[in-house]
């Protein structure tokens, strides 16, 4: 009987009411503070959060020279994806989330890798990085998103809201957990995955096949499925060296998190690959800036694993990037 603890003497009614009040006010306060932060453009308030202070120091001069520093550290154009050029026969792949595990590159693995990085033709003039936040629901941002030269999306998102999120996709990330949960690791029929991939049109899919050893085989099967179906889309694997370098870069600059989200990873890649960047759907709060409640995603209300990703911390970095002209963070309707 789950309500007994409320009805009996285990919790005093006065404390219970106070607890409920705080649970209601804290999200409102968080949203209000961030919204005020956006309104006060010329007098940035102090935020007593170590990560935000570190981000402020890093981004206060994040112009072309600082972007060059990110390029020297990580070099997304050459290292974002595993290729024959950066991972030759006989070399070792070190799993970024499991560094004690290594994989020697065999001829069989080499032949399924692209010869060169597909991102060497950058920079792209305008890029939309489209998060899956509930703030996109009823935003009418679809046509604006599709107007960008290059569009990045995450984790095979729903395509059922074109008016709000658009249809165009240049990169779509695929978390291997999705391959396991939605497509049973592609151990049986592969057609459902092929059909899901086809809904994004001609696209590059990015999979972190070499973050955890348990994810590699399902990632290979996803690649084979598209190749066998003569799909015009292609699957590339995140290079674990790029992910490790990026994680170390931000750790050295004061951002400590168990693992960067795929959104944060690709925003950083876009800083190198794109001239002008606009973020849509990056809002990790349950209330809209105007006060109404939001689902976590624009297509469902499944919450993230807070033990792995710390979305509000990442959001403070996006806000600072916005204020310093590094990118544009779009909130609300278009």
From TrEMBL:
Protein's UniProt name: Alpha-2,8-sialyltransferase 8E
InterPro entries per the UniProt record, alphabetical: Glyco_trans_29, Glycosyltr_29_Sialyltrsf, GT29-like_sf, Sialyl_trans
UniProt entry tagged with the keyword Zinc: no
Subcellular location: Golgi apparatus membrane
Principal location: Golgi
GO cellular component, one term: Golgi membrane
GO terms assigned for molecular function: alpha-N-acetylneuraminate alpha-2,8-sialyltransferase activity
Source species taxonomy: Eukaryota, Metazoa, Chordata, Craniata, Vertebrata
The keyword rRNA-binding is annotated on this UniProt entry: no
Positions of transmembrane segments: 21-40
Family the UniProt entry places it in: Belongs to the glycosyltransferase 29 family.
Topology within the bilayer: Single-pass type II membrane protein
PANTHER family referenced in this protein's UniProt entry, alphabetically: ALPHA-2,8-SIALYLTRANSFERASE, ALPHA-2,8-SIALYLTRANSFERASE 8F
